[in-house]
Amino acid sequence: MAQNDHLAVPTGDSQYVTVFNDPVNFNAKHPLNNAWTLWFDNPGKKANDKNWMQSLKELITFDTVEDFWGVYNNVVKTDQLAIGSNYHLFKQGVKPMWEDEANAHGGKWSIQLPRNKTIADIDRIWLYTMLACIGEAFESESEICGAVVSVRKAFFRIALWTRSSDKESVAMAIGRTLKQSAGLHGELEFTPHHETKTSQKWVV
Ligand code: MGP
User: Fold this and answer.
1) 28, 61 Cβ separation under 8 angstroms
2) Residue 86 is part of which domain span?
3) What's a Pfam family in this record (predicted)?
4) How many domains does the structure of the chain reveal?
5) CA of 17: how far to CAs of 2, 30, 37, 67, 175, in Å?
6) What is the predicted pLDDT for the residue at 98?
């Protein structure tokens, strides 16, 4: 079987049975534009550069809608994760760290949501954030590197990592789309991964 045979797009040809035709015996899946990798880390104690990297684990890569749901339905939900842990969903080939070439000049949109007020909603917010990524909801699609949900004692943090940190109008459009897609209330702030000399402060 050729590598991408499972990615066949239905053409009306009856040989393709999708999950909509037969939820059990389907043989064709709906391809995503990109393959995505889910990562997890829980440094266990106060994270530093070294123990953080050691605790980072690559969980799984998927490239179809069906496999995304398979992953989502089988990993621990965000509201059940241990304090200190993070899920990272990044395009295949991009490591969820500042050091990766794709992130080296980038930044992130992020928002911290009080844990006690968000615990009932965080899993839906993370799901919608992931769907915006894999569904390519963002204007400058190539700018998107990945998304992170962080579980902390007092808050959850949602972040969307972008490839560059010096294009204000591009970044603002991405920030607005994230806010809307994930149903986020409150201010999102953009921070470059590395200090810049300019005193830029972008919020949506
Ligand atoms: P964090 O989890 O992004 O920040 O990074 P937070 O939630 O404010 O801090 P926490 O202590 O409550 O978890 C925490 C620490 O993890 C950083 O100070 C780094 O030491 C390490 N770390 C995080 N990231 C995303 C990276 C990374 O991309 N590269 C490296 N080398 N270390 C990282």
Assistant:
1) no
2) 33-203
3) IF4E
4) 1
5) 18, 11, 26, 16, 38
6) 93
- What number does the ligand 1 atom closest to the CA of 48 have? 20
67 C-beta neighbours (distance < 10 Å), count: 18
What pLDDT score was predicted for residue 1? Answer: 45
Q: What is the pTM of this model?
A: 0.89
Check if 173 has its Cβ closer than 6 Å to any atom of ligand 1.
no
Atom 32 of ligand 1, residue of closest alpha carbon: 49
pLDDT band, residue 165 (cuts 50/70/90)? very high
Residue 160: closest CA among 147, 176, 178, 141: 147
Beta bridge partners of 142: none
> Which whole number is the average pLDDT over 119-148?
96
Pocket flag, ligand 1, residue 56 (CB < 6 Å): no
Is the minimum distance from the CB of 152 to ligand 1 under 6 angstroms? yes
Position 49 pLDDT exceeds 90:
no
The answer, yes or no, to whether any atom of ligand 1 lies below 6 A from the CB of 19, is no
What CATH number should be reported for the domain holding residue 139? 3.30.760.10
Q: Is residue 198 part of a domain?
A: yes
Mean pLDDT of the chain: 91
> Which amino acid residue places its CA nearest to atom 28 of ligand 1?
97
